[in-house]
Amino acid sequence: MGLPTAAYAVQSETSPVAPWSFERRDPGANDVLIEILYCGVCHTDIHFVRGEWGNSIYPMVPGHEIVGKVTQVGSAVTKWSAGDTVGVGCFVDSCRTCSACLAGEEQYCEPGATFTYNGQEKNGSGITYGGYSTQIVVDENYVVRVPESLPLDAAAPLLCAGITTYSPLHHFGVKEGMRVGIVGLGGLGHMGVKFAKAMGAHVTVLSHSSNKESDALRLGADAFIATHDPEVFNTHAGTFDFLLDTVSAAHDVNAYLNLLKLDGRMVLVGLPDPTPVAAFPLVFKRRSLSGSLIGGIRETQEMLDFCGEKGIVCDIEVIAMSEINEAYERMMKSDVRYRFVIDMATLK
Ligand code: NAP
Ligand code: ZN
Ligand code: ZN
Question: What is the CATH number of the domain that holds 150?
């Protein structure tokens, strides 16, 4: 049977995002049905839509920064009731038995988490379709609560941009007194600034043009470096404890490694492969280079509660579903201040 669902999808790596419809699975005993109110637009959507990672499945309904209201719950659901305001992030299921799942780090599930779109449904029913749609069916254990104090549109990007920056800052112990650099001021980067600041760090934005300096300071950064001038890599060499690299396009990671102090760490969250890494900048100052993928369900809830307490949300520009292709073009030009969020009422 299935639930008829309106959506926007791409049919190939060269086609625009355009109206489409499909059927969601009927909610099972452990599922909740969520009416999607807002969905953020992540740069990962563009990488996937354009087939940049070579693993895209079409038709594709992107979107993994989902906020909505529970409209129906299965007979065995205990955590949610109709009317609850909830979020769904980058994955909707995982094996639940591997060491990563048992540790609450489902994003690193050994057989592989089921991603919200471009993934395979666990029950073998086909491909997963994401948040550029009016409703979604998700197992109750892969849903999080959105604090009532947060505006729903500005909270939606917390489900990916928020957790992806919160998780490494938290995991690697960013705290008061540390000098932290956020590389790239886009959707992820602007949340990195807010979280690093809330954790007490001295925060510098490193951006590839001078255009975003006043925004960076307004968002809470203490300092700004425009990296188009190669001289800044000499002036600031050895001055950072921690760098969070959120850049979506190919760039010289080694130049940034040299900005770290002795024992400093740089974490990559941006995914513009290939990223060649040299040994010298790491070896000579015992620096570390790490990566980090989104965050688990428990940590995503912790991040949302932290945002609720501190009043942290994303800076957004709300768009109609039909404006999505234009939004992608603007993101490709780094012209996003600082996350597009689709108002799903424009699709109904
Ligand atoms: P975004 O909003 O488009 O921001 C990317 C930023 O990268 C831009 O605002 C720009 O900042 C910088 N940039 C873009 N082109 C550049 C260029 N040619 N040279 C130097 N800098 C450039 O993207 P996003 O949604 O934040 O995503 C960023 C990356 O993280 C993407 O690759 C995405 O796939 C990845 N991602 C990873 C995870 C994870 O779990 N690890 C989760 C979500 C997204 P400036 O103008 O300030 O330089
Ligand atoms: Zn994302
Ligand atoms: Zn697992």
Answer: 3.90.180.10
CA 14 to centroid of ligand 2, rounded, Å: 21
Of the three residues 291, 306, 334, the one that is the final residue of a domain is 291
Ligand 1 neighbourhood includes 257 CB (under 6 angstroms): no
Q: How far is the CA of 178 from the centre of ligand 3 (A)?
A: 34
Q: Are 262 and 113 part of one and the same domain?
A: no
Question: 42 alpha carbon to ligand 2 midpoint, in Å?
Answer: 5
Whether 181 and 199 map to the same domain: the answer is yes
The rounded distance, in Å, linking the Cα atoms of 175 and 191 is 16
- How many domains does the structure of the chain reveal? 2
Going residue by residue through the chain (348 aa), what tens digit of pLDDT does each one get? 799 999 999 999 999 999 999 999 999 999 999 999 999 999 999 999 999 999 999 999 999 999 999 999 999 999 999 999 999 999 999 999 999 999 999 999 999 999 999 999 888 879 999 999 999 999 999 999 999 999 999 999 999 999 999 999 999 999 999 999 999 999 999 999 999 999 999 999 999 999 999 999 999 999 999 999 999 999 999 999 999 999 999 999 999 999 999 999 999 999 987 779 999 999 999 999 999 999 999 999 999 999 999 999 999 999 999 999 999 999 999 999 999 999 999 997
Nearest-angstrom CA–CA distance, 122 and 127: 9
Distances in Å between the Cα of 215 and the Cα atoms of 42, 116, 156, 157, 221 are 20, 32, 21, 18, 9
Q: Which of 206, 225, 247 to mutate to test the pocket of ligand 1 (most atoms within 8 A of CB)?
A: 247
Tell which atom from ligand 1 comes closest to the C-alpha of 227: 48
> Residue 209 belongs to what domain range?
162-291
